[in-house]
Specification:
alpha+beta, Thrombin, subunit H, 3 domains, six-stranded antiparallel β-barrel, six-stranded antiparallel barrel
Length: 597
């Protein structure tokens, strides 16, 4: 055989050997290696990316099986990774989901690592049978915000004594889930300082990353590639990332552990690319960027996450327009639709847009004008004024939390699933600190007659300014009976919280979402001074209706019912409410007593 054909034959054989050493392609159906056949001492291989899009093998040896490690019938395969790279980096954040093969058959996904502050290349593998169980699950569990935090807490799986010597681990070492890098691009340090605790409670490590333009090849996934789950994208992007375990007929299995433990979900899935792997004695991690949307994540459960290639789910548009004395900026974001996560993401994106101005650090007063547009419902108005105070809390956080509160009340309402079309925010930075406190209040006479108009004088002390007096004319209702009335001079927060009975009631007492929107739209604003007249007669609340001076007969009927539904009884009635525009944030309250003759 001549030299040229022999060289060609060698090249073909080398290419064939290389192809056999790589994980299965997206169009292949992987043959499975059952857990029952795995024995200590068996040698296998796992696949992951250390840099670029190059999938590399990692040799491993089985140390044993940890039975019921994650719960009943939830076993873990204990392995030791072998090779120059893994001995240098240890098990890396973002490596979770790396497929593990024995004899070319898929056995599971790398999902656990040995404790913290160690680069020992000891890991736990979630068996493929347990990962496939997520396909049998369809109903989402009821997850609250507190449950989300506890679900994200890392379980600590002790290593049995008979494995301690073989692993080189101390007796106090545990297996914990491999960290999921939270890939963030466009996230300001001020935003991370304010929301870092919430992000950390998700059990993730925030890592600076980037975004890459979408490519037609993004959806050509192979086991060992990386995917991101896009929580926010646009001028800010936030995406947890992990490794793909298998791709079969468009179904993607990844991670080998949950991201949020939310059960059934609908989140955009994007292609992720590894820039480099950062070795650290504390926690090695992959530095990652995300690319185009390639599908939808549908399941987020104990042993894996699962998605399907194709179109991504709809997202909620959020627009933040920031106006300052020196510049105007527009920010555009898209957010996932998740009752558990979206409210905090709304606040985070809003704050990140506000602090994106160089004038923000001057501590101005912020004026918010905006709306939440809902299909088939009245828009939710977002209007208020926020001033800095003497606490080390940036004013922008008050704006962000105000938007988050109203959005959460709408999005997590007990009546119907809202279709949020968009959130539009206009934030104007006013140069001076506009704030005044209620120092005292009085009226010219303490005895009045029904129908009489009197002036309430309020002494206010502004920030670094001379005190001034503001008058509010009030009219005693003509039908007022003899006796004493209370006049509450206050800011909006006091009135919304304590005086306005409907605002302090349960949302479940309202007939539906439209009534809740009307309730939110009626709430008072920080830049007005309020005077509220209260009389000692009962008020009957039936759903969203307020009936002051309720007749005794109706109260008796309410008392006799075993189940009064949405009806409640308050011991005071509002006889009147007045307010004046102040063009600055008002704080405080003062109560006066008025006698009706």
């Amino acid at each position: 055989m001549s030299f040229a054909p022999r060289r060609l034959l060698l090249l073909v054989l080398a290419a064939l050997l290389l192809a056999l050493s790589l994980p299965l392609r997206a169009t292949d159906t992987p043959e499975l290696f059952p857990l029952s056949k795995i024995q200590p001492g068996m040698k296998g291989v796992a696949y992951t990316i250390f840099s670029g899009d190059k999938i590399e093998p990692m040799d491993l040896v089985v140390l044993g099986i940890l039975h019921n490690a994650l719960g009943p019938k939830q076993d873990i395969i204990l392995v030791q990774l072998i090779g120059e790279k893994v001995e240098h980096t240890g098990v890396v954040a973002g490596m979770s989901g790396s497929p593990v093969y024995f004899d070319g058959k898929l056995a599971g996904a790398l999902s656990l690592k040995l404790g913290l502050f160690t680069k020992e290349a000891i890991g736990g593998v979630t068996p493929i049978e347990s990962m496939l169980d997520v396909e049998k699950s369809s109903a989402a569990p009821a997850v609250t915000a507190s449950a989300l935090t506890s679900a994200a807490s890392s379980p600590h799986i002790p290593i049995p004594e008979n494995f301690v010597q073989r692993t080189g681990a101390g007796s106090s070492e545990f297996l914990v889930p491999i960290d999921t890098p939270l890939i963030a691009s466009g996230l300001y340090p001020e935003t991370l300082a304010q929301f870092g605790n919430q992000l950390s409670s998700w059990g993730m490590s925030v890592m600076a990353g980037g975004t890459t333009p979408p490519s037609p090849d993004d959806a050509q996934l192979k086991p060992g590639d990386m995917v991101g789950i896009d929580l926010v994208r646009g001028d800010l992007s936030i995406s947890p990332g992990c490794t793909v375990t298998s791709v079969d007929a468009g179904r993607v299995l990844a991670c080998g552990h949950p991201i949020f433990s939310l059960g059934s979900v609908s989140m955009p899935m994007s292609r992720a690319h590894v820039i480099t792997t950062l070795a650290s004695a504390m926690a090695s991690t992959k530095i990652v960027s995300t690319g185009g949307t390639i599908g939808t994540l549908t399941q987020d459960r104990l042993t894996a996450v699962m998605g399907r290639l194709g179109e991504g789910p709809p997202m909620i548009p959020l627009e933040v327009k920031l106006f300052t004395p020196v510049a105007e900026k527009d920010f555009h974001f898209e957010l996932i639709q998740s009752p558990q996560l979206t409210p905090i993401l709304v606040a985070l994106a809003t704050f990140n847009g506000i602090v994106g101005s160089p004038a923000y650090g001057e501590g101005p007063t912020l004026q918010l004008d905006g709306a939440i547009d809902l299909k088939g419902h009245t828009p939710v108005k977002l209007e208020n004024l926020f001033a800095p105070n003497d606490t080390p809390v940036p004013t922008g956080i008050f704006v962000a939390l105000s938007v988050q509160r109203d959005f959460a009340r709408i999005y997590s309402n007990p009546y119907e699933l809202p279709n949020v079309e968009k959130i539009s925010l206009r934030v104007t930075a006013l140069s001076e600190r506009r704030w005044a406190a209620i120092d005292s209040a009085w009226i010219e006479k303490s005895e009045v007659r029904p129908g009489e108009t009197v002036a309430v004088k309020v002494l206010l002390r502004p920030y670094r300014g001379a005190p001034f007096i503001k008058e509010i004319p009030i009219t005693i209702p003509p039908q007022s009976a003899r006796g004493t009335l209370q006049l509450v001079v206050s800011d909006a927060d006091t009135l919304n919280r304590n005086v306005e009975s409907l605002s302090s009631g349960s949302q479940a007492q309202l007939p539906g979402l439209e009534e809740l929107i009307n309730l939110i739209n009626r709430e008072r604003q920080n830049d007005r001074l309020y005077a509220t007249l209260l009389q000692p007669t009962p008020t009957l609340l039936v759903e969203d209706k307020e009936m002051p001076n309720a007749p005794v007969s109706e109260i008796n009927v309410l008392d006799q019912r075993q189940n009064s539904g949405g009806a409640r009884l308050l011991h005071q009635s509002k006889a009147g409410e007045w307010s004046v525009e102040m063009h600055q944030v008002i704080a405080g309250e003062h109560t006066l007593t008025i006698t009706v003759k």
